[in-house]
């Protein structure tokens, strides 16, 4: 009997006990009708070959283990960055349960959103009634300042029109006539979560800016972060830098407090976020900066249309990307970059110099959202590393071209390959056929780590199986230090593990590295 | 070892009144029917005494905009019933999201070489694009099946889990499945579990059960030598290894588990199920349909059982044994006696640390009632419970478990649950990931009762020890006493107890 009250075995050790091993072996033999072991082994080996890779990469229809989610997730995340805003997703209700779970599992925080709970009858007659009743219920129960409406693919396929539906709901007094109900159509069969972010953000800005008179405030800046699982750490770090510079800015879509509420006995359904008055006022800003270009293409176009100057970045992380962001901010605001920030920069460079011997020539595979992959590839090259595989399932041909240009600009990028639209099963083939030292991605990469033995560094959304990383910044010079340390820890841990066999590798198990 | 207690029905009635007062009239009227207080039942005596009546409306549409915690039919089919079948490839057919959010989240443990002969923790999606919506996805589905066959030739079958758009655009996944099944000589199962069907996960379970009946049973000659003690375990999804901790007991009492549905299952285990002597059903809600079918068509009897906590395990083992006669009954008594010292040791270790603590539950399937006695075995008190997607027959069965005055909530809304928890201030809440963090912010210990909070198994004797340990570590962690800043209020006196 393996279990005892004195030493309670968890699932991992429990099922390794002889009783269970034998039970499972017999289950397999007598009841599972398995393929012969040799055939399984052969097929396993075959998946490691170039021949399998070619078949795998030639896939046209089947997607396996993609590194992207659907639009409404991005819309729900976007809405969470505004003061007392409730996401209302029009369509099937199961979707909303999924978005909430997905965000909670990453942030380890509550994630609120409601659904209009459309069922078969709504599929036939449309979901107007659901939206009218739903807005009234949400307004009364959850006391929001704003309700941001997006759609699931069900509502999109049947063609529900949010603009007229919301008008109808107001006519029926679901919410007061002047209550803010911005919206975005976010079909799951177009783009990915980063497009849903873009759509919702544009919807919110349009709601507040359309038809308003713009009086430009010189030197003031709007900053839009984009879909970012590290918003908690990143937004606070960026605001710190902007405050140090004394810039007049509005952080539009700031979910850093919403997804990092304290535990003090009170559950805050809403916390922080960009205030509605700030959003209104942001129309007057001289410029809007997006920290993630591919998350905000439509939004930035709109900002340009209202007369603002615009600029976009690719998840400014590492040295040069942070330099560029700060210099741009400085140019627009007329504020100088203070000496304290220059010293911070110097400290990051100092750390990189201290550790350069461990990083030079290391090969990486990087996957995630397009801006993140661009950023990581750039930083890796700054440390002397080589981004061998750069993959974004939701990467476009424009992204591919832009990233290739970056890679071509550095000797460390000369052997790099860019994989737009590919998934993590494709990455598996890439890692077997053209191995790298380190894999940078999210929790889904753990299957690649297991199968291919490539150490995984979790640096982007979603991270389910490690806690609290998202609370620390990756952007800016301070963030760069965090990324650098995380990579180095992985390298050193691996080295220690590989040299820790007493009597065999005592000699390389160095105290100082 | 039934625990005698009664709950504060008056307080609970007041809480219900308070939450209803906050809704618009129309919604209040609808929600009222889903909330109640368990009342002492009239029927008494018999083997399974009815302790109370839990009279609520259930299995009807959720109200828009109130933050229901429910999922959808796809979640019920792909996420619950079919997803764990390990040697089949399950295509999430439609846009990318559904498969992505449900990828590897249910902890259906299995043994196999993932990506080669097993596919449980993988996300296969047809990643629908706009053109697929406009022109239909049937051609794409054909190509997907071809690509699966090319890259994963050791799969033993495929299921097509329809997402919302499929039913709306009129795709004929049945025709594609039939054609491709013939071409490859393999089982291909189309499941019409579009998320908009029904009112919750529940219809997805039913549709998935029907798909087994229509697309798996009697489709192949099943070579299998049946035995006198063959049973199927139905409705155990092997979350954290639950089914394994159950199987070991069933084998010990002399039964042969010829199929486990669907945790760690292979297609073969499903195909041969009608040849078994008895279906043992754990999650009644998600798989009673196919058991009824097997009873009608193949004469396979079925019975419900409960492997949470020693009281229920003992009763269940004896009931199961009775079905097979003296030989098995004798073995069963030996097994119960064998585990008795473990049970006694676990209870004597943890009961003093947990005695009298109150618990509120809000879960799906079988757990809102099935886990109650396991807590009571540890001296704990259940003050409220409810189902995400229960039916009337679930609430009837709940009457066998809950005490007079217990707060009952069906398809609870985020608002209601928060207010109930605030009003009751239980010592522990057992619910899901969406509820975990709001509850913990209030300073109330919480355990996820879908995923076992990444622990488990909780079934069987081995699982009970883990369950007891987990409840203890949740309630007796020192963090709950640190919530108040000392310069604001006096900190509460320490109630945490260090692990032993």
UniProtKB/TrEMBL annotation, chain A:
The Nitrogenase/oxidoreductase component domain, residue ranges: 70-490
Enzyme category, top tier: oxidoreductase
Gene name per UniProt: nifK
Keywords: ATP-binding, Iron, Iron-sulfur, Metal-binding, Nitrogen fixation, Nucleotide-binding, Oxidoreductase
Cofactor: [8Fe-7S] cluster
GO-annotated molecular function: nitrogenase activity
Domain Nitrogenase molybdenum-iron protein beta chain N-terminal: 1-56
Gene3D superfamilies: Nitrogenase molybdenum iron protein domain (3.40.50.1980), Nitrogenase Molybdenum-iron Protein, subunit B, domain 4 (1.20.89.10)
EC assignment: 1.18.6.1
Cofactor binding, note field: Binds 1 [8Fe-7S] cluster per heterodimer.
Protein known as: Nitrogenase molybdenum-iron protein beta chain
TrEMBL record, chain B:
Cofactor: [7Fe-Mo-9S-C-homocitryl] cluster; [8Fe-7S] cluster
EC code(s) of this entry: 1.18.6.1
Annotated catalysed reactions: N2 + 8 reduced [2Fe-2S]-[ferredoxin] + 16 ATP + 16 H2O = H2 + 8 oxidized [2Fe-2S]-[ferredoxin] + 2 NH4(+) + 16 ADP + 16 phosphate + 6 H(+)
CDD domains recorded: Nitrogenase_MoFe_alpha
Entries under InterPro entries matching the protein: Nase/OxRdtase_comp1, Nase_comp1_asu, Nase_comp1_CS, Nase_Mo-Fe_asu
Keywords, in A-Z order: ATP-binding, Iron, Iron-sulfur, Metal-binding, Molybdenum, Nitrogen fixation, Nucleotide-binding, Oxidoreductase
TM ranges: none
MF-aspect GO terms: nitrogenase activity
Pfam family, one: Oxidored_nitro
Location of the Nitrogenase/oxidoreductase component domain: 72-473
Primary role: This molybdenum-iron protein is part of the nitrogenase complex that catalyzes the key enzymatic reactions in nitrogen fixation.
Subunit structure: Tetramer of two alpha and two beta chains. Forms complex with the iron protein (nitrogenase component 2).
NCBIfam families: N2-ase-Ialpha, nifD
Family to which this protein belongs: Belongs to the NifD/NifK/NifE/NifN family.
Protein name per UniProt: Nitrogenase protein alpha chain
């Amino acid at each position: 009997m393996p279990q005892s009250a004195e030493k309670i075995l968890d699932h991992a050790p429990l099922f390794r006990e002889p009783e269970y091993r034998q039970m499972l072996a017999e289950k397999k033999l007598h009841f599972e009708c398995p393929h012969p072991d040799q055939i399984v082994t052969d097929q396993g080996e075959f998946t490691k070959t170039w021949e399998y890779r070619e078949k795998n990469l030639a896939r046209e229809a089947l997607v396996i283990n993609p590194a992207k989610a659907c639009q409404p997730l991005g819309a729900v995340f976007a809405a969470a960055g505004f003061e007392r805003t409730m996401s209302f997703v029009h369509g099937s209700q199961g979707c909303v349960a999924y978005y909430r779970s997905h965000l909670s599992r990453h942030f380890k925080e509550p994630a609120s959103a409601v659904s209009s709970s459309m069922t078969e009858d709504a599929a036939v007659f449309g979901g107007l009634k659901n939206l009218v009743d739903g807005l009234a219920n949400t307004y009364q129960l959850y006391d929001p300042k704003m309700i941001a409406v997006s759609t699931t693919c069900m509502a999109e396929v049947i063609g529900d029109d949010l603009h007229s539906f919301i008008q109808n709901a107001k006519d029926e007094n679901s919410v007061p006539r002047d209550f803010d109900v911005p919206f975005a159509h976010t079909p799951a069969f177009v783009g990915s979560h980063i497009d849903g972010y873009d759509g919702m953000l544009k919807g919110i800005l349009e709601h507040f800016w359309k038809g308003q008179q713009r009086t430009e405030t010189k030197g003031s800046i709007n900053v839009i972060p984009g879909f970012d699982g590290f918003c908690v750490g990143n937004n606070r770090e960026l605001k710190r830098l902007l405050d140090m510079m004394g810039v007049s800015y509005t952080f539009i879509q700031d979910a850093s407090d919403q997804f990092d509420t304290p535990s003090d006995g009170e559950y805050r359904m809403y916390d922080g976020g960009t205030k509605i008055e700030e959003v209104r006022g942001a129309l007057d800003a001289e410029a809007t900066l997006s920290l993630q270009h591919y998350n905000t293409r439509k939004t930035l176009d709109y900002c340009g249309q209202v007369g603002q100057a615009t600029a976009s970045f690719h998840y400014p992380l590492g040295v040069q990307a942070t330099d560029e962001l700060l210099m741009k901010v400085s140019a627009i605001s007329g504020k100088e970059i203070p000496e304290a920030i220059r010293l911070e920069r110097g400290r990051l460079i100092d750390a990189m110099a201290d550790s350069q011997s461990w990083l030079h020539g290391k090969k990486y595979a990087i996957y995630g959202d397009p801006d993140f992959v661009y950023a990581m590839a750039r930083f890796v090259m700054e440390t002397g590393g080589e981004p061998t595989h750069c993959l974004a399932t939701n990467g476009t041909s424009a992204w591919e071209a832009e990233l290739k240009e970056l890679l071509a600009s550095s000797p460390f990028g000369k052997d790099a390959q860019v994989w737009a639209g590919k998934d993590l099963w494709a990455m598996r083939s890439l890692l077997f056929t053209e191995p790298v030292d380190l894999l940078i991605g999210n929790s889904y990469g753990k299957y690649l780590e297991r199968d291919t033995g490539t150490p995984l560094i979790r640096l982007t959304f979603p991270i389910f199986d490690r806690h609290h990383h998202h609370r620390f910044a990756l952007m800016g010079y301070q963030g760069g230090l965090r990324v650098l340390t995380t990579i180095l820890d992985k390298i050193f841990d691996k080295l220690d593990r590989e040299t820790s066999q007493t009597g065999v590798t005592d000699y390389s198990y160095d105290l100082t590295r | 070892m039934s625990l005698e207690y009664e709950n504060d029905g008056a307080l609970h009635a007041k809480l219900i009144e308070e939450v209803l007062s906050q809704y618009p009239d129309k919604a209040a009227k609808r929600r009222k029917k889903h909330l109640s207080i368990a009342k002492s039942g009239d029927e008494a005596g018999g083997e399974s005494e009815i302790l109370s009546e839990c009279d609520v409306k259930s299995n009807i549409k959720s109200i828009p905009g109130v933050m229901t915690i429910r999922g959808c039919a796809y979640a019920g089919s792909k996420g619950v019933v079919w997803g764990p079948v390990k040697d089949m490839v399950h295509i999430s057919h439609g846009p990318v999201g559904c498969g992505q959010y449900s990828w590897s989240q249910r902890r259906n443990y299995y043994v196999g070489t993932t990506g080669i002969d097993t596919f449980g923790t993988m996300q296969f999606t047809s990643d629908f694009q706009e053109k697929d919506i406009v022109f239909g996805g049937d051609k794409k589905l054909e190509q997907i099946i071809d690509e699966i066959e090319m890259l994963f030739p050791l799969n033993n079958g495929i299921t097509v889990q329809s997402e919302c758009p499929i039913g709306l655009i009129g795709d004929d996944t049945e025709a594609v499945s039939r054609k491709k099944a013939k071409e490859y000589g393999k089982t291909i199962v189309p499941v019409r579990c579009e998320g908009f069907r029904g009112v919750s996960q529940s219809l997805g379970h039913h549709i998935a059960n029907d798909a087994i009946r229509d697309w798996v049973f009697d489709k192949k000659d099943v070579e299998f030598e049946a035995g006198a003690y063959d049973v199927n375990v139905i409705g155990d999804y092997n979350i954290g290894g639950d089914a394994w901790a159950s199987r070991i007991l069933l084998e010990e009492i002399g039964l042969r588990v010829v199929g486990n549905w669907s945790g760690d299952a292979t297609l073969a285990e499903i195909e041969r199920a009608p040849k078994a002597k008895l279906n043992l059903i754990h999650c009644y809600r998600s798989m009673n349909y196919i058991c009824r079918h097997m009873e009608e068509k193949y004469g396979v009897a079925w019975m419900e059982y409960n492997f949470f906590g020693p009281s229920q395990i003992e009763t269940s083992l004896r009931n199961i044994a009775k079905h097979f006669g003296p030989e098995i009954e004798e073995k069963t008594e030996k097994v119960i006696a064998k585990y008795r010292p473990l049970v006694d040791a676990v209870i004597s270790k943890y009961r003093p640390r947990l005695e009298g603590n109150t618990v509120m539950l809000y879960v799906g399937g079988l757990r809102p009632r099935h886990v109650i006695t396991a807590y009571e075995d540890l001296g704990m008190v259940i003050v409220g419970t409810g189902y995400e997607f229960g039916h009337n027959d679930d609430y009837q069965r709940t009457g066998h478990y809950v005490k007079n005055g217990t707060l009952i909530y069906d398809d609870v809304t985020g608002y209601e649950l928060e207010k109930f928890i605030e009003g009751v201030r239980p010592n522990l809440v057992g619910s899901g990931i969406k509820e975990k963090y709001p509850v913990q912010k209030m300073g109330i210990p919480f355990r996820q009762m879908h995923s076992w909070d990444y622990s488990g198994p909780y079934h069987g004797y081995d699982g009970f020890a883990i369950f007891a340990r987990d409840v203890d570590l949740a309630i007796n962690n020192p963090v709950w006493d640190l919530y108040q800043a000392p310069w604001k209020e006096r900190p509460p006196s320490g109630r945490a107890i260090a692990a032993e």
